[in-house]
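Worked example 2:
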Amino acid sequence: MADEKKGLNSNVELVLGDYKTAVKKLALPLMMSMFLMMAYNLADSIWVSGLGSDALAAIGFITPLFMIIIGLGNGIGAGTNSLIARYIGSKCYDQANNTAVHGLFLTVVISVVGAIFMYIALPSILIWMGAAHDLEFSLEYGYIIFTFMIVFLFNHVCTAILRSEGDVKRAMYATATTAIINIILDPIMIYVLGFGIRGAAYATVISASLSCIILSYWILYKKDTYLNVTLRNFKYKRSIIKRILNVTIPASTENLISSILMISINLILTISAGTMAVATYTATMRLIQLGGIPLIGFSTALLTIIGAAYGARNIQKIKDAYRYTIKLGLITTTIMVVVFLIFAPDISMIFAYGESSNIAPQIASAIRILVFLIYSVALGNISAMLYQGLGRGTTSLTLTIIRALICEIILAYLFAIVMHMGEFGVYLGLVIGGIIGGFISITWAMVSIRRLIRDYTPDPMIVDEIK
């Protein structure tokens, strides 16, 4: 039953208020969080590149597998965030609290099962990926990361819970802790203490663990969040698990598809141009991902706004918020593309040291092609978050399959292998495929919104709670 909670705090009022203000104010801390996350991922590549191209390639092989962990965390977080936002929009606050606890419960279960599986299967997976030459480096890094996967999942789910109530600033503070500590620890662990590539993994785990402690203090101990996340508010409901998984499974599968895309591209690059091309691609994509941060900030903010609007039955706000976010995203993307095109040689120079210094010119060339992938993020990711906010994760997954597995991989294979264009063909195929997939996503989203306005029916689970 809906329970009117008095004294809505400013964060919740922001989520429920004007969508233009909400997108901007929610997105900025999210951008900072993503920038810091990308910065510490980039720091890994920069410091590890000093160990040589084989070590950097090993990071490239582990990265898509690590993205599966991040994908699981993002998936559980997105499912939890979406459902909490819908409950808040419908003023079902008890169920919003209960949903938060269910999200943490799923996190623990999936973390334990996932760690055991990856510890057993990692060598076989890496060999299948084509990493036999770099297997020792890859295993040294990967075993440490996957053994402690719970700290990464816990971080993502807790920050999603904070975002669902509009508390993006503290979510940013937790992420900042992870990033800054990791950047500080990387050179100490890798070079000063002499752990090599294992040091990069230790630095990542330690920094994520410290963030877990901070989030646990805020949410579980201090309890000064809007949501009251306690076992006392936990009443197990299969319907809540189902609703979280309706977004979690497709969203996590989307990240799995992104990992499959990276694995496939690494394999195509290895066949057509060698492992040096994998190192170049890995470093370049870390830089390009920095350019996509504003888009991820806008789209993640949109998820919460859409969920709350859907719970409040405000369909016009869904349409207006989506269109506004797309417009904002395309303007920002164009600015980022121009910056990367102009400063590509200067940006690539951060890798111009150690044994991998010779790849800087190749990275600059790759940047000037792959930077246009940011447009596919603007169109595709924002559309995906629209569907996740509505609780329709399967549609989001379908669009990702079309973009990544059908458009990007096929065109990359066609240009690189069939047409013998090598790594340039891979980059060209990715860009063309990504932009085609992005236009399919935005067209599909606009049609869905028109149908939603015409045929809207309230979420039956939310209606039951209100009754």
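The two ends are 6 Å apart (CA to CA). The CA atoms of residues 79 and 244 lie 4 Å apart.
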